[in-house]
Design a protein that fits this description.
alpha/beta; seven-stranded mixed β-sheet; 12 helices; 13 strands; binds guanosine-5'-triphosphate; binds magnesium ion
């Protein structure tokens, strides 16, 4: 049984309702300092494992205005010498407890300290990546990585060279997917002026993110929005309408559109169904990447595109919302056409090759 104490703030800095501080070592030192008064009265070192203990944490510092402050906390003794303290997530509340722990000479260690309480460095790294998930769906993939990578590292020594190479190739094949579990996919709306790109952006967002106006050339810059489509995190960009223009401001906007299009995971070409196609529409259709989704907006109005060309366009109305559900599900399918096998660890960090070498 260790005689010293070690403490680590597990929750990342930033906004949060609840923070967690893990303390390991000789828990009787916490009892002696009388920081925690559980409602059931017993000393911490006698509490049942995994029981949820409500109580107060009373600060013992005498050198600050916080001395004697008491606040509600929840403690869980997860093993004979480990306790988790769950307190208010604000910086001051966490710091007060950390200061108290220093009073009893707990060594405060960063969450990144590799072998912290027996966690392997792989497990620690996977758990830190999990903190960056922004949707439930991506979190569920990241959540299983600790188990999958730990199993992979355990099984690795028994694999022969050929099997290792096959496995590395298999994992590497999911690099693009894995990268997008912590950073959003980029989706760009582009098209000629006035076709309704900004209206579509707002219809997807559910609020007026972009300015909509009936004069062509309204949007001059790239306007972005972070959202989730089909459970995947997406950075959606509305762009300036594509046309030849002598206006230097608008032509800078067009240049930015082209740059956004070239770096996007998915391009959505927007066309106006209510006006007959012009040569510039056909040129744009031909220039768009093969993977682009092409949509015919203003489907609430009578379509003026010939039947043969209409087939390439998904009809949508930003005004009425018709076709939007189908559009969102097509975006989801285009971004993630296939899911990785459930038992395959994913290359969620650039250093993943080191974990099995
Ligand atoms: N009937 C109808 N009108 C629409 C629809 N979507 C957009 N509009 C109208 O079309 C006009 C242009 O819409 P915007 O969303 O500003 O078009 P844009 O493509 O962003 O235009 P620029 O920023 O100039 O490139 C506005 O008057 C909108 O109200 C639609 O689905 N149906
Ligand atoms: Mg616009």
């Amino acid at each position: 049984m260790p005689t010293s104490l070690r403490a680590c703030v597990l929750t990342p800095s930033g906004r949060g309702a609840v923070a967690t501080i893990r303390v390991d070592g000789d828990l009787s030192r916490l009892d002696a300092a009388k920081f925690f008064q559980p409602r059931n009265g017993g000393p911490l070192s006698d509490q049942e494992l995994d029981a949820i203990l409500f109580g107060h944490w009373r600060s013992r510092r005498t050198d600050t205005t916080d001395s004697g402050i008491s606040e509600d906390v929840v403690l869980i003794r997860t093993s004979p010498d480990i306790v988790e303290i769950h307190c208010h997530g604000g910086h001051a509340a966490v710091q007060r407890i950390v200061d108290d722990l220093e009073l009893v000479e707990a060594r405060i260690v960063p969450a990144s300290e590799a072998e912290y309480v027996g966690r392997s460095s792989i497990a620690m790294a996977c758990e830190r990546v999990l903190l960056r998930a922004t949707t439930r769906k991506t979190a569920s993939f990241l959540l299983s990585q600790t188990r999958l990578w730990t199993a992979e590292a355990t099984a690795w020594p028994a694999l022969d060279e050929a099997a290792r190479e096959r496995r590395i190739a298999e994992i590497a094949g999911w690099e693009r997917f894995a990268r997008r579990l912590t950073a959003p996919w980029t989706v760009v709306l582009c098209g000629r002026p006035n076709v309704g790109k900004s209206s579509l952006m707002n219809a997807i967002a559910g609020f007026a993110r972009s300015i909509v106006h009936d004069s062509p050339g309204t949007t001059r810059d790239v306007v972005t929005l972070e959202t989730a489509i089909d459970g995947w995190p997406v950075r959606l960009s509305d762009t300036a309408g594509l046309r030849d223009t002598a206006d230097p401001l608008e032509s800078e906007g067009v240049r930015r559109t082209q740059s956004a299009v070239s770096g996007a995971d998915l391009v959505i070409g927007v066309f106006d169904l209510s006006r007959p196609p012009e040569p510039a529409d056909r040129e744009l259709l031909a220039e768009l990447p093969e993977t682009a989704l092409c949509i015919g907006n203003k489907a609430d109005l009578p379509p003026l595109w010939p039947e043969s060309e209409l087939r390439r366009l998904l009809p949508v109305s930003a005004r009425t919302g018709d076709g939007l559900r189908e559009l969102l599900s097509r975006i989801g399918a285009a971004l993630v056409p296939e899911l990785p096998p459930a038992d395959l660890p994913l290359p969620i960090l650039a250093a993943w090759r080191d974990w099995v070498s």
